[in-house]
Design goal:
single chain; mainly alpha; 63% helix; 0% strand; globular
């Protein structure tokens, strides 16, 4: 399986090969375009040399924030998001031995357990955790029992609600249209 979320070959390859990069991309996916969020891990790799939980957790905070600020910025809020990424990486070191994939592989967890583990991560609320679980199930080979149910509407087959459903420029356009319609309905009170 090869992810095609960003339209950038190097960024998509890193997301495909590095579970931590995928988690960081999901963490960054707020208040910026999805493709920008998910290219963030590749920008980090280019600027500090790797995307490794131990290295990022131990990185000098000021230098890491500077890496986020370089043009083009990793995120529109480089200071706070650099801190969030370092905190996420420290949690993965402390709770998962530095192995991000252990969150969904250690102990052969079912979908509900993976959702619980994701929600325990800093920066992962209920919705972000459900979207990431759907991404794991739809595109990353995770097949734990009950993952679709645990992911809620994001796990629905054939939906175009989130990054979990992006497999091409065409599906990206469908996800964008779904989000636009949802925002319009929320504004109109529908």
């Amino acid at each position: 399986m090869a992810l095609t979320i960003t339209g950038d070959e190097a960024a998509d390859a890193l997301l495909t090969e590095n579970p931590l990069a995928l988690l960081i991309g999901m963490l960054l996916d707020q208040q910026i375009a999805m493709e920008t969020a998910f290219t963030g891990p590749e920008k980090i790799r280019q600027r500090i040399g790797s995307v490794d939980a131990r290295e990022i957790a131990g990185y000098d905070p000021e230098s890491f924030t500077e890496a986020f600020r370089q043009t083009p910025a990793v995120h529109r809020f480089p200071g706070s998001m650099a801190d969030r990424v370092r905190t996420l990486c420290q949690t993965i070191v402390d709770d998962w031995g530095g192995d991000a994939a252990a969150i969904w592989t250690q102990g052969d967890p079912d979908g509900r357990e993976v959702l619980s583990r994701l929600k325990a991560l800093p920066g992962f609320g209920d919705q972000k955790a459900r979207i990431f679980l759907a991404l794991l199930g739809k595109q990353y080979g995770y097949d734990g029992a009950g993952w679709r149910e645990a992911a809620g509407p994001y796990g629905e087959d054939g939906s175009f609600r989130s990054v979990a459903d992006i497999t091409s420029p065409e599906t990206l356009a469908k996800v964008r249209e779904f989000k636009r319609a949802a925002k319009a309905a929320a504004r109109s009170g529908a």
